[in-house]
From TrEMBL:
One MF term in the entry's GO annotations: kinase activity
Nucleotide-binding as UniProt keyword: yes
UniProt protein name: histidine kinase
Phosphoprotein is among the record's keywords: yes
Length: 421
């Protein structure tokens, strides 16, 4: 029995009933405006417009176009969407969030508002009229005074068999009211995604926004990997080298500690920038992303301070490179040195080469192939990050063992400066 009554009186049905009653309440101001027009036109006496069903329907018909017009206000769709989400049980991802934009979206919102107010007015009117009438029918056999014909009850209720069936008729009328409310609520919940949901243009804009956010987060993940990964590798080797010569070479220990301090300070600044973007969605005032022109020498110096010999060949106008290219190229060199620190072995010379040739910036990082280098393969996150950066800039990246060396080769196109008008 409970399972049969749940669709009519369950929590979801009750909430949708409330939603319909709210629609009826929203319709009342427009009906009152309609009575101001219908009453004088029909020549009705005072109060007749409120007692005549025909005039009430006419007043609603006059007020409905005004309701459709007010539905074009920007807040209508967000407010209706919130009501549908909480009272009708429609998932939030199937409803639009902002104001209706465009003729089609505004038309759907207007149609929804008209349906909500119309069905709500009908159900609200039934909810006001039927329960008292049903209560009279149920109590009629037990209250003789209510059988007086002067009360205006139907003639059939004056008969004995009519009075006997009155309680059943009262219960049926209440069930019919609940059924109408549940049916209207279910229909509105079914139509809500089509009328209040996002348009194809809004879905495309939302997808583009999600893609842009995902791309930003992927870029930040690469920044964290390259910056923090290199810093940890460098600091580990610097600390290890300093520990080994702690009692014999105080000057080297001081240089290693200074390099550790500089490396961690720069990395904390970059980390603050990245975490600020992840936390607030905006870039705070923090250390800017390093570039070849600004910090290539510092990067090489800090790597050498870890006890890793590094030779560098730079034949490119670093200060003239576009900022984005210079920043991404710096990260590529940094990741190449990080791989060398991790896999080449202590004391092994690493050769770095940054050359501008044929309109392309060529980056190379070479080191002797240690026994553990075979574990690098081509699937590390660092190498994937280098390839991803290269593709985004329209370039190419190759890495792998060649003639006893681990070689990283990256070739990035350098945009030509636009001609002055």
């Amino acid at each position: 029995m409970t399972a049969l009554l749940r669709p009519l009186f369950g929590r979801q049905a009750r909430l949708r009933w409330v939603h319909l009653v709210l629609g009826g309440a929203l319709a009342m101001p427009y009906v009152l405006v309609g009575t101001v027009v219908v009453g004088p036109v029909a020549g009705s006496t005072d109060g007749q417009v409120f007692t005549s069903l025909t005039m009430q329907l006419a007043s609603f018909a006059v007020g409905l176009p005004l309701a459709v017009a007010t539905s074009l206000f920007p807040l209508t769709r967000p407010l209706e969407g919130a009501a549908v989400r909480w009272l009708c049980g429609v998932p939030a991802d199937r409803l639009a969030e902002g104001p209706a934009r465009g003729r089609a979206a505004k038309g759907r919102t207007a149609l929804w508002f008209a349906l909500h107010l119309t069905s709500g007015a009908v159900v609200a009117g039934m909810s006001l009229a039927l329960p008292p009438f049903a209560a009279v029918l149920i109590a009629l056999p037990f209250v003789p005074a209510w059988r007086d014909p002067r009360l205006g009850l139907p003639e059939i209720l004056g008969h004995g068999w009519g009075q006997a069936l009155a309680p059943a008729a009262g219960v049926v009328s209440l069930l019919a009211l609940a059924g109408c409310a549940a049916g209207a609520g279910a229909l509105l919940a079914r139509w809500a995604p089509a009328l209040l949901g996002p348009s194809p243009e809004e879905r495309l804009a939302a997808a583009e926004a999600r893609a842009a956010d995902l791309a930003l987060r992927n870029r930040l993940a690469r920044e964290l990997h390259d910056s923090v990964g290199h810093a940890l590798s460098a600091v580990t080797l610097q600390a290890s080298a300093a520990r080994r010569v702690l009692g014999s070479d105080q000057e080297f220990v001081r240089e290693a500690l200074a390099a550790i301090e500089e490396t961690t300070r720069r990395t904390v600044g970059e980390l603050d920038t990245v975490l600020g973007v992840l936390r607030d969605g905006d870039t705070p005032d923090a250390a800017p992303a390093p570039t070849l022109a600004a910090d290539l020498d510092g990067l090489l110096r800090r790597t050498r301070a870890a006890g890793q010999p590094v030779t560098a060949t730079v034949d490119a106008p670093l200060k003239a490179l576009p900022p984005v290219l210079s920043r991404e190229a710096y990260r590529i060199v940094q990741e190449g040195l990080t791989n060398a620190l991790r896999h080449a072995g202590a004391g092994v010379t690493v050769a770095v080469r940054v050359v501008l040739r044929d309109g392309h910036l060529e980056i190379g990082v070479d080191n002797p192939l240690a026994a553990s280098a075979a574990t690098r393969g081509g699937g590390g996150h660092g190498l994937d990050g280098i390839r991803s950066r290269s593709r985004l800039l329209g370039g190419t990246a190759r890495a792998g063992p060649v003639d006893g060396l681990w070689r990283l080769r990256v070739r990035l196109p350098v945009p030509r400066p636009s001609a002055s008008p």
